[in-house]
Please model this.
Amino acid sequence: MATKESVKERTSSKIKEPRQFNVVMHNDDFTTMEFVVDVLVDIFHKDEVTAQAIMLNVHKTGKAVVGKYPYDIATTKVNAALTRAKSEGFPFRMTVEEA
Model:
């Protein structure tokens, strides 16, 4: 009776976490607070209270980090926010910076 031997091969694969990037929102004197809160809720999935706190922080300090994401996700969210701002006539600004 023949037996089959199974050979187990060890593979070592290390999954590297993607680099993270901060999405930074900048203050301006023209974009409405309501618009900023809507962007934070709709695009960045913040709850209403957190969105208002971030908006006030941006207003008081000039800028604030609104999220930390892999590069592709960060740029997609920023582009969505800037497209919405442009369509509504706001000079809204957001940038992506390495975390």
Summary: The first strand starts at residue 20 and ends at 26. The radius of gyration is 22 Å. The mean pLDDT is 93. The chain has three helices and three strands.
